[in-house]
Amino acid sequence: MGGIALVNTQRNLTWNLWFITWLGLIAGLFAQPFYEYVVYFSAIQVVIFLSIEQFKLTAFPVQVRIAYLAWVALGTYVPYLSILMLITTIGLTANVFFGYCPLARTLYLLPINRNEPLSIDLVKRVFQSPPVKGRFELLPPVVN
Fold it and tell me: What are the TM regions of this chain, as residue ranges (predicted)?
């Protein structure tokens, strides 16, 4: 029973952290200085999830937060890459409200995160798998 409570607590923490980040992104659409707070808050998320995952950089939740931090830092501080912030606002909206995280699905395709060879079928299954709370579940391979 305690394990279920821990999982629910971590899911709630995860959703709350993403929701706060999303609020920062929405604020940034109206006043770009808020994007800096999104970068800082994303760095805090990296530290939190490194701690939760016992400082394993290969843990998938840590990979997602590091990639997200890099994405928002580039979009905030590199001239002409501010379009990344609009893309992340759309992607995080899909994650927070529908359980579909495009970044996590993209990272799943890295060799360290998958158990089968990269193929068109795998890419289709990764991006067409239905949204879920937490880590997405990959559709099974099509058997002919």
Answer: 12-31, 67-100
